[in-house]
Amino acid sequence: MSPELISILVLVVVFVIATTRSVNMGALAFAAAFAVGGLVADLDADGIFAGFPGDLFVVLVGVTYLFAIARANGTTDWLVHAAVRLVRGRVALIPWVMFALTGALTAIGAVSPAAVAIVAPIALSFAARYGISPLLMGAMVVHGAQAGGFSPISIYGSIVNGIVEREKLPGNEVVLFLASLAANLVIAAVVFVLCGGLKLWARGAVTEGDSTAGDPTGATGGSAPAAGSSAPAASSSVPAAGSPAAEAAPGGAAAPGSAQLRTRPAPATPAASPEEARLTPARSATLASLLALVVAVLVFDLDAGLTAITLAVLLSTAWPKDSRKATGQIAWPTVLLICGVLTYVGVLDEMGTITWAGEGVGGIGVPLLAALLLCYIGALVSAFASSVGIMGALIPLAVPFLERGEIGAIGMIAALAVSATVVDVSPFSTNGALVLAAAPDVDRERFFRQLMVYGGIVVAVVPAAAWLVMVVPGWG
Question: Which residue spans traverse the membrane (predicted)?
Answer without folding.
Answer: 47-70, 91-108, 114-132, 144-164, 176-195, 287-318, 330-347, 368-395, 407-439, 451-475
